[in-house]
Design a protein that fits this description.
The structure is a single chain. By secondary structure, this protein is of the alpha+beta class. It has a single domain, classed as Glutaredoxin. The protein contains 5 helices and 9 strands; from the N terminus they run βββααβαβαββββα. The strands form 2 sheets. A 7-stranded mixed sheet has the order 2-1-5-4-3-8-9. Strands 6-7 form a two-stranded antiparallel sheet. The longest helix has 12 residues, at 41-52.
């Protein structure tokens, strides 16, 4: 997993509208949060918390982007269903997830699989990672990220 001080990887993906987005072209500070699967309870709760605080992130000059390996269509439906005001990137080929190192082994009911770790990265204005939350607990996480912004 990427760590503090490392540069923002030069990667991108299509967003929920199908538009190609390069992370480096977005406003900074930039909050990139990774979630396992759209429209599941934990991921929905996390997205709603970021959505509730989105205007406060913007007032601090920060952009928020959610990333999962869901399809563009799944991301679009998820965004529309919950009125999410920020982009969701469809990293179906795992380019962004691999670049950030968030694909981890998971153990679900004794069965080991590889999946997206719930992790968040704050990228500073200089394009370097300023903070990493490697094992996110959903409740209160968006507020914690917001509080870490200058």
């Amino acid at each position: 997993m990427l760590d503090v001080g490392e540069p923002l990887p030069k990667v991108g993906a299509k967003d929920d509208s199908g538009a190609r987005v390069r992370l480096a072209s977005l406003d900074r500070p930039l909050v990139v949060y990774f979630f396992p699967r759209a429209d599941t309870p934990g991921c929905t709760n996390e997205a709603k918390q970021f959505a509730e605080l989105y205007q406060q992130f913007r007032k601090k000059g920060a952009e928020v982007v959610g990333v999962s390996r869901d399809s563009i269509e799944a991301q679009r439906k998820f965004k529309e269903k919950f009125g999410l005001p920020f982009r969701l990137l469809s990293d179906a080929d795992s380019t962004i997830c691999d670049a950030f190192g968030v694909i981890v082994e998971k153990n679900m009911y004794g069965r080991k699989t590889k999946g997206v770790a719930r992790a968040t990265f704050l990228i500073a204005k200089n394009g370097k990672i300023a903070r990493v939350w490697p094992k996110v607990k959903v409740d209160g996480h968006a507020a914690e990220v917001l509080a870490s912004l200058p």
